[in-house]
Fold this sequence. Notes:
Structural class of chain A: mainly alpha
Distance between the termini of chain B: 74 Å
Largest sheet of chain B: 2 strands, antiparallel
Oligomer: heterodimer
Strand order of the largest sheet of chain B: 1-2
Strand order of the largest sheet of chain A: 1-2
Radius of gyration of chain B: 33 Å
Strand content of chain B: under 5%
Number of strands of chain A: 2
Largest interface: A-B, 57 and 48 residues
Helix content of chain B: over 70%
Shape of chain A: globular
Number of helices of chain A: 5
Number of helices of chain B: 32
Amino acid sequence: MTEHDHDGEGDDGDGGDGAQVHWTEWDTPREEWLPADRDRPDRPRSLLLEVSTRFLFPTIVVFSVYLLFAGHNHAGGGFIGGLVAGLAFVLRFVAGGSMELAASLRLRPPTVIGMGISIAVVAALVPAAFGDPVLSSAVWAVHVPLLGDLKIASSLFLDTGVFLLIVGVVLDLLRSLGAGIEARELERRPGEEDRP
Amino acid sequence: MLIAIAAHLVAAVLLLPIGRRWGRGAFALGATVPAATLVYVLVGRPAEETLSWAPGIGLELTFRLDALSLLMSVLVSGVGALVLCYYVAYAGRNADRGAVARDAALLVLFAGTMLGLILTDDVLSLYIFWELTTICSFLLVGGDGGTKALRRAATQALLVTTFGGLAMLLGLILLATAADTWRISEILADPPGGPAVAVAVVLVLLGAFTKSAQVPFHPWLPAAMVAPTPVSAYLHAAAMVKAGVYLVARFAPGFADLPTWWGPVLVVGIWTMVLGGWRAMREHDLKRLLAFGTVSQLGFLTVLAGAGTHVAAVAAAAMLLAHGMFKSALFLTVGAIDERVGTRDIRELSGLGRRWPALAGFAVLAAVSMAGVPPLLGFVGKEAALEAFTHGGVKDIAVLAGLSAGSVLTVAYSLRFVIGAFGSRGNALAPTAAARPGAGFVVPVALPALAGLVLGLAPGLIGHPVADYASAYPVAEPYHLALWHGWTLPLLLSAAILAAGYLLQRAGVLSRYSNPLPDFLDAQRGYQATVAGLTRFAKEFTGRTQVGSLPAYLGVILLTVVIVPGIGLFARPLWAPELRAWDSWLQLPLAALVLLAAATVVLARRRFTAVLLTGLIGYGIGALFVVHGGADLALAQFLVESLTLVVFVLVLRRFPPEFVQGHPPDRRQRVVKATIAAAGGVFVAVAAVVFSAGRQGGTGGGPSSEASAEYIARADEEAGATNVVNAILVDFRAFDTVGEIVVLAVAATGAASLVLASRRARRGGLPPESAGGEDEREGAST
C-alpha cells in the first residue's frame, strides 16, 4: 500500500486549500494515520492496525469515560474505566511504537499517577473540611434542562482519581517495559539517536 | 490553631513558584505567616480545637494552646519571622532563585510543622509532626546536595533523629496503651504506672535526646552547621532542637518521679552541658563554637525541664525563651560576619568590633545574656535554675555542681565568642576590612538581643505563662522570676561562676589541650561505626535471603501462604460444605476449558505458550463470572487479563524463548517445585470451598452473608449507587481503595525505576570503565 508515497514536502505543498488540488488526487491522504508515523522509518508496520487505531482510540477513550460515570449505577467504575483507557494507549503503542505513545499524551506517566493520587486523597479529605468524617460521601441531585435529573455522588471524584491513576500506571508500564526496552535495543544500532 | 498550621502549609506550597519568579522577596512574604501566628498566639487565650477525621476508629486531631505551647510558639513563630526577614539580606541580590524558593518554602513549612508539634494534644499527631520536622531539617541542611559534606551532614541528622523518633513512637504507643487514651493531656492527668511505663519513658526520652542533640547523639548538630546560617539559626538554635526539650517538658509533670525518667535526664543533661561547653572552648569556627554552645545549653534545658520541680520548671521556661533569643541573635551575627568578611574563623578576624559598633553592641548584649550577666533574661533564668537545686539532698547538690561547672564553661565560651568575633588582635593581625552590614542584618540581631534585655529588666511580662506552666508541679510557695531576690546563695554562685569563667578563658587552658578525649569515647566515631555496621549487616542479610532466584522466592511465598493461613483454617472445626456440581450448564464447558489450559501450561516448553495459556485460564474464569452474573468482576478480569498479556509480551521480548536451555532440568528440583506448586493449588481450592461454605453458613444457608445483604441494602440510600460493587469500592470500603491505589502507584513507580535504572546503568556505564570492563572480559576469556 502506498498511502505514504508522498514524502514530507508533499505534505506542505499541496495540503493547503482544496480548490487547487487536482481532481484525481483529492482523496489522497495528506496526513499520517498516526502523528508519530515518520519518526521510525524502519519500524515494521501494519496499515490495518494504524487505520483502526486512528478511529478506535478516541472511541475507546470516550467509552472509558462513559464507564467511569456509569460505574455508580451500572457495570463500570474508575478501575474498569481506567483499564479501558489504558488499553487504548496500549493499542496506540502497539500500532506506532514508543514515539506514538509519546505523541499521544503530553503529560508524563508519573505526573498522571501523581494527579490520580492527589485527586483521590483530596477527595477523601474534603469532607473533613465540612465537619464530616474523612471519605464520607454526599449525593447531589441536579435538574439540568434538556438532560433531565442528574444524580451526582461525591465519590465520583475518588473514582476519577482511581481512573487517572490506573491510566498512569498503564502508561508507566508501557514507558518502562515497552519503550524502555525498545530504546535499549535501539541503542545497539549505530547512528540511531536515542529519544527518551 | 488549625488555621494557623494550615496557613503555613499552604504558604509553603505557594512560596515555591513565588520564589522562583521573584527571588528573595519570597522570604519577606513568607515571614508574614509566622508573624501573624505570633500575634495570634499572643492575643489568643488557652483553647482547644478538635477535628475528628475518622471517628469510627477514634482518630482525631486535637490542638491545645496551654502555657508551655504558648511559650514554644512565641519562640517558633517569633524567631521564624525574624530569620525569614534576615534571610532577605543574607541571600543578597544575586541569590540563586531555585535555592531561595526551596529554602523559603521549607522554612515556612518547618515553622508550620513545628507549630503543629507543640500544639497537638494527640500522641500520633505528635509523632507525625515530629518526623515532619526531621524531614524538613534534612532537606534544609542538605540544600541542593551539591557537596559531600552537605549530604553527609543531612544524612546524619536524618538517621540519628529518625532513630530516636522511632524509639519515641514505640514509647508513646506503650504509654497510650497503658493509659488507654491517645490524648497527651489525659495521659498526664492520670499517669499510668508499671514496668511497661518505665520502659516507655526511656524510649520517649531517647527520642528527645536525639532531637535535642544530647550525648552521645550530639555530633549531628555541629555537623549540620554546613547549612546556610539563617537555617542553622532557626533549626539548630531556636526550633528543631527545642522539640526534644519540649517533649521532656511536656511529659515531665507525669513521669518526673520515675527513676527511669530523672536518672537519664539528669545524667545525660549535665554530661551534655559540660561536654558541649568543653568542646566549644576548642573550636575556631564561630558557627561550630555556637553549635557546641547550643549542645551545652540543650543539656542545661533538658535538666531543668525534666527535673520535675516547680522552681526548675520556672527556670526552664525562662531559659527556653532566653536561649531562643540570645542564640538566634548570635547565629545571625555570625551570618553577617560570614557574609561580609567571607570567613568565620576567629584566627582570621580582627577589629570588627570597632568597625561595626552597632552589630557588635547587640551581639555582646546577646552573649552577655548567654553568660548569665545581670540584668538580662539569661541571668534571671540562671538564678532560678540555681535556686531550684539549692535546697535538696545529695542528688540536688550533685546536679548543682554539674550545672555550675557547665555555667563556668558557658561564661568562658561566651567570652571567647565575643573576643574572637569582635576583638582586636593588636599587631598580630591587621584589622579585617569589610563593608558594614546594613539594617537588614542588624535589626534581626537587635530585636532578640533587646528582647532579652527588656524581659530581663521586667520579667513580670512573661510571669503569667511561666507561672501557669510551672503550676503543673505541686508547690507551697510559688517562685517568681525577678532580677533581685536578695543576698542569696544563687547570687553568690552566679558571681563565682562569672569570675571563674572569666579566669578560665583568660588562662586559655582548655583551648591549648590537643585531644582531651580518647578515640573510643568520640561520639562521631561511634556514629560512623554504627552506620558502617548496619550497612554490613544489611548487605550480609540481603545476600543470604535474597538469592535472586525467582523459583526460590515463589516457593517461599507459596509455602507461607499454605502454612500460615492453613494453620488458622484447620485449627478450627471446619464447616461442612454443601457442594453442588454446577449451577448452570454453561459452567461445564468453561470449567473444562480452564482445567485443560491449566494442565497444558505445566507442559509448555516455551514461555510465550505458557503466557498465552495462562491468559486463557484468566479469560475462562472471567467467563465463569459472567455466567454467575458478576458483570463488574468479569469486566475487570477481562481487562486485567488483557493488560497482563500485553505486559508479558513486552517483557518476554527480552527473554530466551524457552524455559530450559542447554542443560536438562534437575529431576529432584522439579519434584520439589511440583510438590510446592501442588500444595499451593490444593490449599487455595480447599480454602475457597471451606470459606464459601462458612460464608453461606453465616445466615443459615442463605445465598449471601449478613455483610453482603447489608451492603446491598444500604448501597442506594447511603452511597447513592445502584451498583453495589462500585458502592463498596468508592464508599463503604473507600479507605481500602485509597490504600490500594497508593500501593499500585508505588509498585508501578518501583518497577519503572528498576527498568529505567538498569538501562541507565548499562548505557551510562562510563565509557572508560565499560571499555576497561570489556577488555578484562576479553582477557579473561582468552
